[in-house]
Amino acid sequence: MRYIIAVFSSRNETLYLANMFKSNGLYVDIINTPKEVGQACGISVRFDERLLTVAKNFINSKPFRSFYGFFKVQINGAKRLVEAI
Predict the structure, then answer these.
(1) Is this structure's pTM higher than 0.85?
(2) In this structure, are residues 11 and 42 in contact, taking their beta carbons and an 8 Å threshold?
(3) What is the pLDDT of residues 28-58, one digit of tens each?
(4) Count of other CB atoms within 10 angstroms of residue 75
């Protein structure tokens, strides 16, 4: 399984991005931020990697001050690989 997460240091901005997706009819989840990412607000927006361009456009359209970055998460069995993109 592979997906992308958007990580913020602000819970409000995390939820704001999720609402931007949902108001445009796009499916996202709010998940706990993987510990491999480092310090963040604790929750992230998870979405399909095909929506990365949409997510970048959303991020660029508003003044998100706490945006930490996008990360690709790949899960193979019990192993989880998290890398910045």
Answers:
(1) yes
(2) yes
(3) 999 999 888 877 678 999 999 999 999 999 9
(4) 12
